[in-house]
């Protein structure tokens, strides 16, 4: 990668050139984003994960640009058409679109109208006309009439010349750049329902006759319109006014003269626009807006996933998990503090069996037998009824009873991961186990499920799947390494996301652990087959070994700094364990005395922070949450009710909140706060406990409108009017968008 690329990245990210070059060097050596941002602060100048990932992604884009540049130069050179001027332009191209524009005249083509006209010998006539000088058009065209070349008339000759000129106009680099800007800045999305599809396409009703500027269309509407088009319900156009486009072309191409040649070129321009340039630009703009919409949607998904993965864990407790149901009963499992399955059963406290006494006795017996500390109830069918039943059977007050979001549990229960963990159990038992483990440690359990099935995305099945996977993998890796992993209890799936490991080494760690027993020290990790020095360097700091002989093995202090920490303890005449337990002893350490060429104050401060709370979990502490008693179904809702809820999903147009009635309600962007906000993430996070006011209940269409304003009914009429102006997606947002987003969400 040349120096210009490094300079470009530094300028774009507003960081120093050395930070860019050194970070890319680390990445090229195989270092991961979490490792670089956590353990190489002196090298990068304390860049965080977002900045390091930004450098990585931009460097990859620029390298792809260089790869395409080299291929284009090779192709044109092989054609014998690479001039010094063209080579300079190609080497100076900073975007893929400019590069492709320069290559367009030399790109191998299928037979076009222009190539056919050239085969007929009409290129000299096209050249003469394109000069736009005053000529006797009829006389010049007559020279090219030749029956043997299928040019029977002068008009046929002129038509062929115009076909050639149209292609030249289409290949004009300056024009294509200006036209691209016009389509983006002045283009309009126009969506109309296909005739006869009105009833079938009702969920896209808002787009039956819809238009808005391309440059301001929000991602969720772009994706919604594209989905409607893909499903053959909508017709979608994204062009500027034709007169504006033609005027722009004429301004670039036409000479300031009036003669018959100019008129021929004018005709060629109109043909070029309709036949060549408009389709090309529309495709480009649709790809551009799709990419932008994808980026926005993926960003929303990744942030929601991060918040979900970092939800507060209950911790190592004995847990009973109940997957509720009516006819098939409630599958009930008991789990030990490490999530191991102790027992499973089925109870039938609900309709139609209603075996409440027997079910209550079973629950009480299992709670006592396994010393259950918490009961997790899945939030699917019959969840509120089951919750009410469990709370009413007289369990000890010390036993926590709480609801757990079970989205994706059925995906896990049918997966290879679940079959490998519980080969002798059926789907229902596996699903209940997943519910219980989610309460104990959401991160450790959710990494076993395809992130797209967790239900916190926005049009996740419509976006670029490769970009989505990369972003979600980055998010999961960031969360896993940010929290740290206990190597002796972690699943293969959790270990896979540890910096430097991956599926093969994760499997090898589990196999080694099974054969040799728990790891006793971090250094023992090096004995795992195929786990070399580089992988150990990348992973060791994120792996924890509880109760190890060396107390630093349970911390985030990297083994490469053990000697330094031991020197600190020795210098103040203390034992390592005393240094970790005594704030007074740690205060005696003067950090600047330990600064070296490889260790600076940022790393030293990280070490001191870790010594004060070794192996600390950065996640918030668990808080018990309960839905409003007596409000179990939509029919129980009344406008004006104030209810507790949990944020389940965040989109660009608002947040969805579970209020315990089996149908999430929408708090539109305009009702998330008393003040104006641009982004829901300014005020809410996934899994946040909130209080909402019921604004609208539509049982037939399963719509619930909610508000988080302190006085949501104040100036209600005015608010509705303003809301409609700010986002015409309000109606679509709480129905069509919800359906679209959750199309792949299974329970």
TrEMBL record:
Residues 640-709 form the S1 motif domain. InterPro entries: HHH_9 (IPR041692), NA-bd_OB-fold (IPR012340), Ribos_protein_bS1-like (IPR050437), RNaseH-like_sf (IPR012337), RuvA_2-like (IPR010994), S1_domain (IPR003029), S1_Tex (IPR044146), Tex-like_central_region (IPR055179). Pfam families: HHH_3, HHH_9, S1, Tex_central_region, Tex_N, Tex_YqgF. Residues 710-730 are annotated as: Disordered. Residues 712-728 have a biased composition (Basic and acidic residues). This is RNA-binding transcriptional accessory protein. It comes from Belliella calami. The lineage of its organism: Bacteria, Pseudomonadati, Bacteroidota, Cytophagia, Cytophagales.
């Amino acid at each position: 990668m040349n120096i210009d690329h490094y300079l470009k990245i530094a300028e774009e990210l507003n960081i120093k050139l050395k930070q860019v070059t050194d970070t890319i060097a680390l990445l090229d050596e195989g270092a991961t984003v979490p490792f670089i941002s956590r353990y190489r602060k002196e090298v990068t100048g304390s860049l965080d994960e977002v900045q390091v990932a930004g450098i990585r992604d931009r460097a990859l884009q620029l390298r792809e640009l260089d790869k395409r540049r080299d291929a284009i130069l090779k192709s044109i050179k092989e054609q014998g058409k690479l001039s010094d001027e063209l080579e300079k332009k190609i080497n100076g191209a900073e975007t893929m679109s400019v590069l492709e524009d320069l290559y367009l005249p030399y790109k191998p083509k299928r037979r076009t109208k222009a190539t056919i006209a050239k085969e007929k010998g009409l290129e000299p006539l096209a050249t003469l006309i394109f000069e736009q000088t005053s000529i006797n058009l009829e006389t010049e065209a007559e020279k090219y009439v030749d029956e043997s070349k299928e040019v029977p008339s002068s008009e046929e000759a002129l038509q062929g010349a115009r076909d050639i000129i149209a292609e030249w106009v289409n290949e004009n680099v300056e024009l294509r750049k200006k036209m691209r800007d016009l389509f983006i800045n002045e283009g309009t999305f126009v969506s109309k329902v296909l005739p006869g599809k009105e009833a079938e396409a009702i969920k896209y009703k808002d787009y039956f006759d819809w238009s808005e500027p391309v440059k301001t269309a929000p991602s969720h509407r772009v994706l919604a319109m594209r989905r409607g088009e893909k499903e053959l319900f909508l017709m979608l156009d994204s062009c500027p006014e034709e007169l504006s486009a033609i005027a722009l072309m004429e301004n670039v191409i036409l000479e300031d003269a009036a003669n018959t040649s100019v008129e021929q070129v004018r005709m060629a321009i109109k043909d070029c626009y309709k036949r060549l340039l408009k389709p090309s630009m529309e495709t480009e703009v649709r790809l551009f807006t799709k990419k932008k919409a994808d980026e926005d949607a993926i960003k929303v998904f990744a942030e929601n996933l991060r918040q979900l993965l970092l939800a507060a864990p209950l911790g190592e407790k004995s847990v009973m998990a109940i997957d509720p149901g009516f006819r098939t009963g409630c599958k009930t499992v008991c789990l030990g503090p490490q999530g191991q399955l102790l027992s499973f059963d089925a109870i039938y406290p609900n309709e139609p069996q209603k075996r409440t006494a027997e079910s209550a006795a079973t629950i009480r017996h299992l709670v006592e037998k396994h010393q259950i500390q918490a009961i997790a109830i899945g939030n699917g069918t019959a969840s509120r009824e089951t919750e009410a039943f469990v709370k009413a059977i007289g369990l000890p007050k010390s036993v926590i009873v709480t609801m757990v979001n079970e989205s994706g549990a059925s995906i896990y229960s049918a997966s290879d991961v679940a079959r490998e963990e519980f080969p002798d159990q059926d789907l229902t038992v596996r699903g209940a186990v997943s519910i219980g483990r989610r309460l104990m440690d959401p991160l450790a359990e959710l990494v076993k499920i395809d992130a797209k099935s967790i239900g916190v995305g926005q049009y996740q099945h419509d976006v670029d799947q490769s970009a989505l996977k990369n972003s979600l993998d980055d998010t999961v890796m960031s969360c896993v390494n940010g929290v740290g992993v206990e190597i002796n209890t972690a699943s293969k799936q959790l270990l896979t996301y540890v910096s430097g490991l991956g599926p093969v080494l994760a499997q090898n760690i589990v196999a080694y652990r099974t054969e040799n027993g728990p790891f006793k020290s971090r250094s023992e990790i090096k004995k795992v087959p195929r786990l070399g020095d580089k992988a150990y360097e990348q992973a060791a700091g994120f792996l924890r070994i509880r109760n190890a002989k060396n107390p630093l093995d349970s911390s985030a202090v990297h083994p490469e700094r053990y000697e330094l920490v031991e020197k600190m303890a020795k210098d103040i005449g203390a034992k390592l364990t005393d240094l970790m337990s005594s704030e007074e002893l740690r205060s005696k350490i003067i950090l600047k005395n330990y600064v070296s060429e490889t260790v600076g104050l940022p790393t030293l401060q990280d070490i001191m922070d870790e010594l004060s709370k070794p192996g600390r979990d950065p996640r918030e502490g668990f808080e018990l949450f309960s839905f409003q008693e007596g409000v179990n179904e939509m029919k129980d809702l009344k406008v004006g009710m104030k209810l507790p809820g949990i944020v389940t999903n965040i989109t660009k147009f608002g947040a969805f909140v579970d209020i315990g009635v089996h149908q999430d309600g929408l708090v539109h962007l305009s009702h998330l706060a008393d003040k104006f906000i641009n982004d829901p993430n300014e005020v809410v996070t996934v899994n946040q406990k909130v209080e909402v006011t019921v604004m609208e209940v539509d049982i037939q269409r399963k719509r619930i409108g909610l508000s988080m304003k302190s006085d949501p009914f104040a100036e209600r009429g005015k608010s509705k009017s303003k809301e409609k102006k700010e986002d015409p997606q309000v109606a679509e947002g709480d129905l069509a968008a919800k359906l679209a987003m959750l199309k792949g969400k299974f329970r």
